[in-house]
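Researcher: Predict the fold of Helix-turn-helix domain-containing GNAT family N-acetyltransferase.
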Amino acid sequence: MLDRPQGDVALLRAFNRLYTNQLGLLDAHLDGSRFTLSEARILYELAHREDPTAADIARTLNMDRAQISRTLKRFADRGLLETRDDPGHGRQQLLSLTPTGRAAFADLDVRAQEAIGALLDRVSARQRQRLIGAASVMMQAFDGGDEPASVTLRGLRPGDLGLVAARQMMLYAEEYGWDQGYEALVSRILADFHDQFDPARDAAWIADIDGEMAGSIFLVHGDDPAVAKLRLLYVESFARGAGVGRLLVETCIAHARRLGYRRLTLWTNSVLAAARHIYERAGFVLVDEAPHHSFGHDLIGQNWSLDL
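Model: Structure tokens for Helix-turn-helix domain-containing GNAT family N-acetyltransferase follow.
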């Protein structure tokens, strides 16, 4: 069974109660029309499909076929629906709305548009933007199915340096309890990267999943022209398991080779086990380690190296 924190379950249930109440989905008739919610959903499918069958609608809406049949009979009795035999399947009937049925759907559609518009009018412009964004995320989450996450790598955009520092700090504070000393360190590294950037020796990549930052990595030159540093690898918790860390490290290594570096080094801490595993699989070798007190904790710093 999947790990389902009770707080997450309670929050989603609370949202469902609020949402159904705000939209009046529990009212006997939807949006002041003569249709119930289930009838409105069936009417929508009839209006947006070409000659569907009752079985098609039942599968799409995940509704009981007996309930579908009763609703379709009521529609036919009201003159909203007409049927004809399916020439390719003698036991099935093809469904379509009559002109009266299409007029009824058009009226219902206008009522629904006005109801949602009124709901949006009750919130501020900022809250509306957040509401629409959250609705889009929920649709992607539920409609995405089991498709694997699509990971893309890109270069830096304005604002990315600040986001990398902020996201790494928040992530490691949550997972390891690190204090803002880490944020200060990352900010100094990123400021130096910007100030000393050389396109012939440096590079950076941001991993995106569905347009959302999922991780980062930086290739930074050092004092020795033959040696580069891999810095600031991180992967967002939602992206773990999608191969983001491995893709970032492999991309960084390949680019370092193209630039002519002979060795790639990095510094990390032993507590970052997932990152260390990625480094080991990529061929990095642990050179040395030493205890230190940083970010509010006693840690073991590690230096790793990869011959290119």
